[in-house]
Amino acid sequence: MIEAIDPVVLQETALDVGDFKLVPALTVVAMLVLFLGVGYFFRVAAVDELWVAGRSIGSIENGMAIGANWMSAASYLGVAALIATLGYFGLAYVVGWTTGYFILLIFMAAQFRRFGKYTAPDFVGDRFYSDWARGIAAFTTLAIAFVYAIGQASGMGLMAQYIFGVSYEIGVVLLMAVTIGYVALSGMLGTTKNMAIQYVILIIAFTLGLYATGWAEGWSTALPYLEYGSQMAEAASLEAQFVEPFASAGYYGWIALAFSLIVGTCGLPHVLVRFYTVDNERTARWSTVWGLFFICLLYWGTAAYAVFGGLLYNREVSGGDGFTGMAGQEADALVVLTTQLAELPEWLVGFVAAGAVAAALATTAGLFITASSAAAHDIYTNLYKENATQREQMIVGRSTILGIGVLVTLIGLNPPALIGELVAMSFAIAGCVFFPVFFLGLWWENTTREGALAGMVSGIVISFGAILNDTAIPMYTGLEEAVIPALATWLPGTSSALVGVPVVFAVIIVVSIVTDEPPEDVKRLVRQCHSPEPMQQMETAEDVATDGGTTADD
Questions:
Q1: CA-to-CA distance for 532 and 551, rounded, in angstroms?
Q2: Any idea which fold 51-531 has?
Q3: CA–CA separation, 94 vs 247, rounded Å?
């Protein structure tokens, strides 16, 4: 289990905060102006553009958007920090977050596109013919977006400290205000265009910083990803957990975390909605392939950053006392701190920091769009007012973006855990609540409404209970350990899905067996999601299944 580390905000750290840096500041301002301009140019006036970009996005562009959506502050900054401070255990994040995409590619991407709705709660509500199921799914979507976005706000605040010399709090408020503004303006269409731009910025910044550090220190030349063997050995001599599996946490903790991140990847609404922005299932599959490629370009370098940053911290900051004891604020900014300690030019360090801002903005934008669609489309329109006009939906959607943005900003001023841990918690929620109903809903036509409802409620109790037990309640009540320590050992908030997912699967299957089978039209809809017949552009399973659908037996 990972012990939650309370972030210490605004303390003296090795990161050069407090001074305004002109060139990095101009870089970030130009970047933000570009994002706002793109958002305005692609501003939306129709609901399908707000939620699914008019289903007009190509595979490479969507793959870049998936990459940017995925390369949050947790990936850009947090993964290197987790490997540096937790060593071998931190690799569970890389393994989990990458492996989940293979399951998406094989079992879910094309099937979700064929189903052809707007949102994840849309799928749940229609597949399980239940407004209650839709409502629970919408609530869970809002909760995931909220928890996930807190980590992004924390990353924005840290980078604003370095670039603008402002306090952490002002940095969070400033950059979150920009994010709220351009997402509310542009919707999914403009956000997707921005995500492609943001990916280009963040991958260039991340890679350039890694190469420049390797060159400046004489550690690498052409491929720093493969050339840091001797530095790895040196880091391992300082901190044993780099080469000793499970030195900082047990075998169970590693498996639980990796598993939770794998299934959480397959249950994240803001990832799954990317499959609804393309025109057919083939494009959905290729979007996943491209997305995985773009993600791996960054993840390949996280371990190298962890080693380079750890050695530089040991040499320049701790005076030979190692690097796992670095403060939470320093760890969360390790990628930028690495380039600073290597004494790279200030403009280059600032560009690396700007890449972190782009990563945080991209993910936060995707989360806010998903949250707004859950509120406006799934709750307001489908559950409250079926004849809601497009104007009303747009107002509710944008109000949701504003409301959740304000809440995230407030909690982000004093987040309850490190960036990577906060993101892992949202994955645990997605894995426990959504993955079982998505998977069984697509692959077992006899999954019933009652089974899905029972499963989602069970997943909520397990995942939220774990987070409250070992993170939220201790953080905000002053407790030094989990409310129930024994429970936290086997059901940590960051990795509750190892227990939760099998339990939820069992609940759904058992309840489905003892309740009435789904209506025949729902079964036809599920069969059509697996039809060997290719779909026409913009077509959905519902369009075809009304006449009985096309199955492999026909």
A1: 7
A2: Sodium/glucose cotransporter (1.20.1730)
A3: 18
